[in-house]
Amino acid sequence: MKTLTKIPCGVTIEFDSTMFLQILDKYGVTGWNNWIKAIHDQNLIYPFYNRTKNPPAIQVEFDLSGIDLSNRELDGVDLTMVYISRGVLKDSSLYGAKILLANKCNFIGCDLRTASFNSCDISGAIFIDAMLGDNDWERTFYYVGMPPIGLPADIIARLKQAKPDDVDAADSIPAEENKIICRTEMKDASYWC
After folding, report:
1. DSSP code of 190?
2. pTM across the whole model
3. Residue 13 pairs with which residues in a beta bridge?
4. Are 12 and 59 in contact (CB under 8 A)?
5. What is each CA distance from 148 to 11, 41, 83, 88, 101, in whole angstroms?
């Protein structure tokens, strides 16, 4: 008798900056944070599902890489699990914001007081003239050779330097070995009625 092995397979939905800006412009930071909380509550964002079980069938990701959020009022915005690499946040207010993936971001002149960078990658990020105070730098890191620019020496001393070898192993697997073949079939709504 042949034993079947279950392989988790799901759909990842990745949103770009268009959706983020639409929600932000229509509902503000509170609307965005409420929407993110609802997705967290549904366990649809990668680190929030139980790792001992299969991942969710649908997983939501946000890629705001390179977004220009200059001169915006973003106090308290939740940017955890949002890829904001190379984002331009120059002269914005991010008081009390939660930021997780901010490598090569431009925070020049930002109000970052009480912002959380817990476990955040800030490699090559620019903090010149940023207002800092009571920030959470717990487990914040940068890659060797790509230190953040403009942070005070006492903060830099507390940050972890990660070696390039610490990068995900998936990046070193040849593409042909890293693919999972999935068969999909599209049906219209009448199929389910």
Report:
1. G
2. 0.76
3. 60
4. yes
5. 35, 33, 17, 15, 13
Q: Which helix (H) or strand (E) holds 14?
A: strand 11-15
The DSSP bridge pattern shows strands 78-83 and 141-143 to be unpaired
Q: 173 Cβ partners below 8 Å, 6+ apart?
A: none
Tell me: the pLDDT tens digits for 15-70?
Answer: 889 989 999 999 999 999 998 888 878 777 655 445 566 666 677 788 999 999 99
The predicted pLDDT at position 185 comes to 45
Q: How many helices (H) and strands (E) does the chain have?
A: 2, 6
For domain 11-163, is the CATH number 2.160.20?
Answer: yes
Going from N- to C-terminal start, the domains of the chain cover 11-163
CA distances from residue 100 to 7, 76, 176 in whole angstroms, order as listed: 30, 13, 30
Give the whole-number percent of the chain exceeding pLDDT 70.
Answer: 73
Is the per-residue pLDDT at 9 higher than 70? no
User: Are the beta carbons of 94 and 119 closer than 8 angstroms?
Assistant: no
3-class SS of residue 36: helix
Phi then psi dihedrals of residue 25, to 5 deg: -70, -35
Strands (DSSP E) found in 32-95: 58-63, 78-83
